[in-house]
Amino acid sequence: MIRTEADGTAVGDIVEDSSSDELSAWRGWLSATVPADRTVAEAGVRRAYRQAGLPEPERVVWAGSPRAAVELLRDLPDRGPSVRDAVRSTPWALERRRLHEQLGATGWSAHWAATGGRLWESTQALVDRIRTGVLEELVGRDTGEAAADIRLLLLDAVLGQHDAPWLAAFTPDDGPLEAVAAVCRSAGWWWPYSRVAVVCERPTALHRDEAGRLDSGTGPALAYPDGFALHAWRGMPVPAEFITELPGLTPERIRSKENAELRRVMLEHYGYDRYLTDSAAHPVHRDATGVLWRIDLPDDEPVVMVEVLNSTPEPDGTRRTYWLRVPPTTRTAKAGVAWTFGIAPEAYAPLVET
Prior knowledge:
Blueprint: E1 3-4, E2 10-11, H1 14-17, H2 20-31, H3 38-51, E3 59-63, H4 66-74, H5 84-114, H6 117-139, H7 145-155, H8 164-167, H9 178-184, E4 190-192, E5 196-200, E6 205-206, E7 222-223, E8 229-230, E9 232-233, E10 236-237, H10 240-245, H11 251-256, H12 260-270, H13 272-278, E11 285-286, E12 291-295, E13 303-309, E14 321-326, H14 333-340
Helix pairs in contact: 3-9, 4-6, 6-7
């Protein structure tokens, strides 16, 4: 079936034909942590040069991570100029224009939302975090010429597996993006220059929370085979040594942490309910709705929570306790629960609690 917009522009069934299985495959390549298929990746790189009308690179060099690739490129003065525009940007622009003309503005928007748009936001955040991590490790807080050079090198990269979101919106296996897609499915970031192409291994570990943010309380949230790694808790970058502290936390160690952001991470990891119990906290208010607790922290706003009991029993007859984080200004348990529903305390009067 072919639909048309009001102006007569054809809107094909590309959205309908984009199956969940296909999107799942792109999601799998995007998140892959197995070793790169170097044979397939190198063949794809060389094919991308040929499809762009360029001579193949004289050699393809492998790096263990984006950090290692940038270090390698800084020591390769004979690499020649970047050909990224020819092998990636130009064919991408042609394919996007083709689809936009075929589907129309409304059709393209719907197609993107059903395909690449579902992977884009979390992937872009990951890419930005990798770039920041490389920059921090190589130049620290330096903002001079060296930092500028590294930023330019990072922007020269073709993103390999992290190009999956926008490739998922196309049909790359029979068009000008076929070779770029082959590298995406088989390797990490890569840098195309006229004489040399540098290709990265995939990560060996990737841990993200339900929102797609880097997240691990037991080790690196993202790690590469050469040791380059990023540590994070629910998307917030944390020092590597901080993660090693988490298994041995006590209320005293949490309270003594000077950095307020890291102290909040400690609390989340330790568990608010456990912290309240282990620190012998006392409730500040109690009513039929629940119990209001307050944790005062040095140089930070207090943590205020409502403890509520589920009115529906579990199969074994027990009732589950829930902890609701509420604003520090909350004064009663009822006001806290009402706030979670976005209503005033006087308006909160449920007929049946569930």
